[in-house]
Amino acid sequence: MRALTRNPDAVLPGAQMATGNLTNPASLVAALQGVEALHLINFDGGGYQPLETGAEIVELAGKAGVQRVTVLGGREDTSVEKALRDRDLAWTLVQPVEFMANALAWAGAVRGQGVVSEPFISRRSAMVHEADIAAVAVAALTQQGHGGKVHTVTGPHVLTVPDKVEMLSKAIGRQIQLVELTEAQAREKWATEGVPANIIDFLIWVYGNTPEIGYTVVSTVEDVTGKPARTFAQWCAENSRAFAAPES
Residue 247: pLDDT above 70? Predict the structure, then answer.
C-alpha cells in the first residue's frame, strides 16, 4: 500500500509513503507509478474547497495504468467525478453520511467539564463508523462489480444528539451533561475554536436542515462487505479513553 501525504515527515505504519499534493498534479507522477487502484478525495486540504485538478489527476492515473478508482466525496460532483465519468476506468463514488469520529470534537469538553454543547440537538443522523467507510472503499478497490456505482454509506441506526451523549456516557461510566446552543452561540463557539467561516456555514446548514439521505439507514456496508455496520455504541467503547476524565 502506498499513502500520499503533503508532509514529507509523515509515517503510516505498513505503508510506503509518497509526498505529493492533489492540488499540484505534477507532484503525483512518481506516486502513481505501479498503482492499479487509487483512492481519492474530492476536496483540497486547505479549506475543504472542491478540488479543481480532477481532469489532470485522472489523466495521470490513466497513463500510469490505474484500473480502479474510488472517490470519497459528498453530494455534489467536483472536477474529479466529472473527469472519471469521461474515462475508461472502473470508478466508484463512496458517499458516507456523518462520521462517528466527528464526536471526537467533544473530547476536550467531556474530559474537562463533562459537557457536550451542540445546536439542533433533535437532529437525526445515521452516522457511520470510519472503519466501515474504509471497508467499503477497500472492497471497491479490490473486487469486481463496483464500477460505475455510487455507494452511500451509513451506520445501522438513526440517532439524535441526546442518543449519542447517552451512549457515550455509558461507555465512559459517567453522565455527560448536554447543553443546547442557539445558532448564534454555536457560531461563536466554533469561530473561537478556529473553525473556518465556510465550514461553520456548512455545519449550520447540515445540522439545521439535515438532508433525508443523512438520516436514512441503508444496507451498503453489509451488502458490500458481508458484515453488519458497526454501531455508535461500539465506536464509543473503542474510543472511550479519548473522553476519560484526567486522573487526579
Answer: no
Cell of 209: 436542515
Distance from C-alpha of 243 to C-alpha of 104, rounded to nearest angstrom: 8
Q: Which three cell numbers stand for residue 27?
A: 507532484
Cα–Cα distance for residue pair 195/192, rounded to 1 Å: 8
Distance CA 217, CA 146 (A): 20
Residue 46: Cβ-neighbour burial (10 angstroms; 0-12, 13-18, 19+): exposed
Phi, psi (5° rounding) for residue 116? -120, 125
DSSP readout, 155-174?
Answer: -SS-B-HHHHHHHHHHHHTS
What whole-number distance in Å separates Cα of residue 73 and Cα of residue 94? 6
pLDDT digits (tens, 9 = 90+) for 100-110: 999 999 999 99
**Region of residue 185 (phi > 0: left; psi between -120 and 50: alpha; otherwise: beta):** alpha
